[in-house]
Amino acid sequence: KGTSSFDDNRLIQLSLVGVKPGANGKGVVVVMKLRSLQGKPTTCYLWITLHKNAPATLGSIRPRIHKNRYCPDLCMASIHVARAIPRSQKPVMVTRKRPLPPRAP
């Protein structure tokens, strides 16, 4: 009664993974929370910027998350987000439609 611990309320995330688009619209930034520095909130986050192509980015995110023993749902969620970011950063090619020739009467 009256205890406020991690097991009771689950408000403090001990493991955290975030994937964001990189600066200038290029690359992917992976944010990970380090368990060893959880008592220091300002320095406990590790920011990794990846400027690779899409398959190489996914191939480098997956081992980093598994090596730090994050839960599998966080791993798959971050991979799905990382897969969508390079697609959204591609320039959109505008195709112009040619007007149809006039019909013969």
TrEMBL record:
GO terms for cellular component: ribosome. Gene3D superfamilies: 3.30.390.110. GO terms for biological process: translation. It comes from Crocuta crocuta. InterPro entries: Ribosomal_eL28 (IPR002672). This is RL28 protein. It comes from the Eukaryota. One of its GO terms (molecular function) is structural constituent of ribosome.
